[in-house]
Amino acid sequence: MTQNGLPSLRCLSSDRLLVGLYRTFIVSKAGKETGDAKAPLQLPRHIAIIMDGNGRWAQQQGLPRHAGHRAGVKSVRNAVEQSASHHIEVLTLFAFSSENWKRPKREVGLLMELFFTALHREVKRLDRNKVVLKVIGDRTAFSEKLQKRILQAEEKTAGNSGLILQIAANYGGRWDITEAARALAGRVARGELDLQQIDEEAINGALSFAGLPDPDLFIRTGGDQRLSNFMLWQSAYAELYFTDTLWPDFDTEAFDQALTAFSSRQRRYGKTGEQVTEAANRSVILESEV
C-alpha cells in the first residue's frame, strides 16, 4: 500500500472498465480516516509536469548540479507510482527542452548519460507494472546509441494497458506546432488535403500527442510560474499548479496536494459557474439512478 492508503503500483489491476469511475470519484484521505462525509476528489485524466529545481536542490545540499538530476529520478518513480495508483490515464514529464542544449556542455552530457542509464534501469519496472512508455520530441539530435535505447524501451512496453508515461525530451511546444504545420502543408501540396480541411482537429492529429487527452493538470515545481514552451497547444484549458517545492522534494504528500488543488477548481470552458454546477448535479442524479 502507498502512504495515502491506495494500492501500490505492483497491485494495480489492468481492468480498463473500472478506470473511468475510479479516476472521477475517490474518497478523500481525510474522509476515510475520520469517517466524515467529504466531497469526492475529482481527478485529472492527464497530468503534465515541468520537473524544475534539480540544480538548485543540489546547490542547497552543497552538491554538484548533476547530483540533483540523479536525485530527481526518485521523484519520477514516485510520480509514476502515484499516477498509476490513482488511475490517471496519462503522465507527461518534461525531461529536456529544446532550449536546454544551451546549458553547460558537461551538464548536458551528464543529462544524456542519465537518460540512457534510466531507460535501461527503469524499463523492466515499467513493463512489469503495465506502463506504456513513449518519448516525445526531436530525437535526431541524440546519439544513435540513445535513439536505439529509446526505441527498444518503447517497443518493450507498447503492448501494455496501464498508465501512459510520456517523456518529453528535446521537445518544445513551438517545435511541435511547427512540425504539425509543415506536415499539414505537405499534405495540401500533395493534394491529399484541402486547405479548408485544416481545423483544430486536423492540427491536433498532427501534433506529438495525437490521440491522447489534453492535460487537465499542469504542474511546475521549483517556484517559477511560466510554461517554458511546454505543450503550448495542448495546455489551452489546463489547470496550472505552481509550487515552490523543488523536484527532488516533490513526494507523495506534494503530489496529493496538487490533486487536491485541482479538485477544488471549477472547470467552466466558457460556461457560467451556474451552468457547470447544474450539469454536475444532473450527472450525480443520473448516476444514483443507475
Task: Describe the protein in words.
With 290 residues, the chain is α/β, with parallel strands linked by helices. It has a single domain, classed as Undecaprenyl pyrophosphate synthetase, CATH 3.40.1180. Helix content is 45%, strand content 12%. It contains 10 helices and 6 strands. The protein has helices at residues 19-24, 29-34, 54-60, 65-85, 105-128, 144-157, 173-189, 200-206, 252-263, 273-289, and strands at 46-50, 90-97, 132-136, 164-171, 217-220, 239-242. The chain has a 6-stranded parallel sheet, with helices on both faces. Helix 6 (144-157) links the parallel strand 3 and strand 4. It is globular and about 55 Å long. The two termini are 31 Å apart.
Nearest-integer average pLDDT: 86
The N- to C-terminal Cα distance equals: 31 Å
Instruction: Tell me the strand order in the biggest sheet.
Output: 3-4-2-1-5-6
Uncertain segments:
1-37
By DSSP (H or I, 4+ residues per run), the number of helices equals 10
Give the helix proportion (percent range): 40-55%
The CATH homologous superfamily name equals: Decaprenyl diphosphate synthase-like
- Which CATH architecture is right? 3-Layer(aba) Sandwich
Strand content range: 5-15%
Query: What's the SSE pattern?
Result: HHEHHEHEHEHHEEHH
- Count of distinct strands: 6
Structural class, from helix and strand content?
Answer: alpha/beta
CATH domain topology: Undecaprenyl pyrophosphate synthetase
CATH top level label: Alpha Beta
